[in-house]
Design brief:
three-stranded mixed sheet; 13-stranded mixed sheet; 365 residues
Length: 365
């Protein structure tokens, strides 16, 4: 059964409230978003809802907490309606930059970049702690946040300067095969860095089992298969390295990556591989999914876990769960829709990413 509570500006759980409708979208290594309509039975607590407040929600393996980003009120013939919109606690990573030396303030920086190398879990933990956690400068510490991690994942390296902490962590998590998520507590919240679990054999969605009601499967061509990386030097003297990755679409798609800040072979190869990862072909499966006693989101599988969906005779897909939209109608019924594989970007995201990439080719802060 769904339980929802208000959360005060100090990140402490306050009064229990009710929603007539509530929905939350969980995405891999991305802040949860939520929206809901308050039940009139909670009217006595409406005066507590103000900027800086948030909510927490728990229901049979599914939980989230976050701050409100919009409070919409209206009154129709004396009947008040409150609609709340918010973003999950992982948003704190989007609110921070990566400082070259996180131990020093902006006007005291003594190095050009923050650099680290090691298992992805440890590298992510240190990066988060130094820029938003207990080891950050006092004014940069996220209120109520505690970071936990599992020292796992493949080896990664990071070199960053004044970039989005969230985007940097997302890149590292993808490269190191790790999951970053947030869990609410009675006081504050946890940021957890953990490896995903492969459940391809134990979690199998089928039409016969009742989990698959409908589906859409999309395969998209790569956007980059050959990357030319430019190192130091000018004109004919500039260092150029090329990496090519074979693909089933049999296409050669060339892109350029500017790394004039380094001439180290390892750095140039890392830059090429990152671009090739971004440009790989994609497979996306959208499932009209129904939870069953055998398979429930949050109980039998989580965001990031690899599962199998049997779609038709001879057709199945084994992919990670990258998005789950959970909707509650009252407090007894919930529905879940799933996306496996790559998550579609909206047009604004595509334009913003293109602009960011264009700028990154030209300049480095």
């Amino acid at each position: 059964m769904l339980t929802t509570t208000l959360r005060d500006p100090n990140k402490n759980v306050s009064r229990q409230i009710r929603f007539t409708k509530l929905s939350a979208v969980f995405r891999l290594n991305t802040p949860t978003t939520f929206t809901g309509t308050l039940d009139p039975s909670s009217m006595q607590f409406f005066d507590r809802i103000a900027p800086g407040w948030g909510i927490t929600a728990r229901d049979d393996g599914v939980q989230f907490g976050g701050d409100l980003t919009k409070i919409h009120r209206k009154n129709d013939k004396g009947i008040p309606t409150w609609e709340l919109t918010g973003v999950g606690d992982l948003q704190v990573l989007a609110d921070r930059l990566t400082y070259p030396n996180p131990a020093k303030r902006e006007n005291e920086q003594d190095v050009s970049h923050y650099r680290d190398k090691g298992p992805a879990g440890l590298v992510l933990y240190k990066l988060i702690e130094l820029n938003a956690g207990s080891r950050a400068l006092p004014e940069r510490r996220a209120l109520g946040m505690e970071t936990k991690f599992i020292n796992a994942g493949s080896e990664v390296s990071v070199e960053t300067r004044l970039k989005s902490l969230l985007e940097t962590c997302q890149t590292l998590a993808a490269a190191g095969n790790m999951v970053i998520e947030a869990y609410p507590q009675s006081k504050g919240y946890f940021i957890v860095v953990r490896p995903p679990t492969v459940r391809a054999k134990s979690v199998v969605f089928t039409q016969q089992g009742g989990e698959v009601l409908g589906w859409e499967l999309t395969n998209s061509a790569p956007t980059a298969t050959t990357v030319v990386v430019g190192g130091q030097g000018e004109g004919a003297s500039r260092t150029l390295e090329t990496r090519t990755r074979p693909n089933t679409w049999e296409r050669r798609i060339e892109v350029f990556k500017d790394r004039r800040d380094t001439d180290e072979a390892a750095d140039l190869e890392k830059a090429a591989n990152e671009e090739l990862d971004k440009g790989e072909s994609q497979q996306t499966l959208k499932l009209d999914f129904r939870e069953t006693e055998r398979l429930k989101f949050g109980v039998n599988f989580q965001i990031g876990d690899t599962v199998t969906a049997v779609l038709a005779p001879g057709l199945q897909a084994t992919l990670p769960v990258t998005q789950a939209k959970v909707e509650w109608d009252g407090y007894q019924n919930r529905s879940v829709s799933l996306t496996l594989g790559s998550v579609d970007d909206n047009l604004r995201d595509v334009r913003m990413r293109k602009l960011f990439n264009d700028i990154s080719h030209i300049s480095t802060i």
